[in-house]
Amino acid sequence: MGSKILVVEDEPALLEVLCYNFSREGYQVVTACDGADAVDKARQEKPDIIVLDLMLPKLDGLEVCRIVRRDMTVPILMLTAKVEEVDKVVGLEMGADDYVTKPFSIRELMSRVKAMLRRAAMFPPYQGESGIIRVDQIEVDTARRLASVDGVPLALKPREFDLLLFLARHRGLVFTREHLLESVWGYQYAGDSNTVDVHIHWLRNKIERDPHNPSRLVTVRGVGYKLEG
Question: What angle do helix axes 194-207 and 85-93 make, rounded to 10 degrees?
């Protein structure tokens, strides 16, 4: 049986289109039309991925994302009609893994969902390879999905952990934004590498002694990023 998708959308016509296309692809589809119901369905149904509209009655998508992310690591794809960069950044900061701006093509949406499910399978919570990866004073527990720096536990969002884990596994190697998008986010470069920059910024705030002068997660000018150690 296919993966279970929770689709949260208050526009009936769009909800019908999404349900039809996801069902046709073999997914189990659960729906919610407002934010409060979305939180309840997420807790009850334990979906494999959530497709979440930003503008919702009762609770907006950002608040739903914040509440759900506190309880579980399910991938969240946010749908937004807003084009301001701040809305995208806030959505990611609340714990969304990716976003698609309306209007979007169903083909693109399906591609993103499939890629996110592949990433979730590659980075399952509390599973995977056992052991500790150490880079400088950074310690990554691959089995329990925990990380610390200088002995202090880090509060990482799921995608922050995935990014840190990938860079730690390939310490000293330089990766372009496009490579990181494909390897960590799981989809081919779709025209917006700012997602990587935002997560790099968040990671630096957590692992660097001085985030303004990074010595661990460094920028290689004109190329990309690498984790030193």
Answer: 50
For domain 4-122, give the CATH superfamily. Response regulator (3.40.50.2300)
pLDDT for 58-100, tens place per residue? Answer: 999 989 988 888 778 788 998 987 665 556 666 676 778 888 8
Q: How are beta strands 28-32 and 4-8 bridged, if at all?
A: parallel
Q: In terms of C-beta distances under 8 Å and separation of at least 24 residues, what long-range contacts does 73-76 make, across chains too? A: 73/125, 73/158, 74/42, 74/46, 74/47, 74/48, 74/49, 74/50, 74/120, 75/48, 75/49, 75/50, 75/116, 75/117, 75/119, 75/120, 75/158, 76/49, 76/50, 76/52
Confidence of residue 186 (pLDDT cuts 50, 70, 90): low
Average pLDDT on 158-169 reads 89
Nearest alpha carbon to residue 122 among 79, 182, 208: 182
Q: Which residue has the tokens 């334990």?
A: 46
Give the residue range(s) of CATH 3.40.50.2300 domains in the chain.
Answer: 4-122
Residue 130 has pLDDT above 60, yes or no: no
Q: Tell me which CATH code domain 132-227 carries.
A: 1.10.10.10
pLDDT given at position 126: 41
- Nearest of 88, 104, 92 to residue 66 by alpha carbon: 92
Can you give the pLDDT at residue 181? 84
Lookup: tokens for 146: 């925990």
Q: Where does the chain hold its CATH 1.10.10.10 domain(s)?
A: 132-227
Q: Chain centroid to CA 33: how far?
A: 22
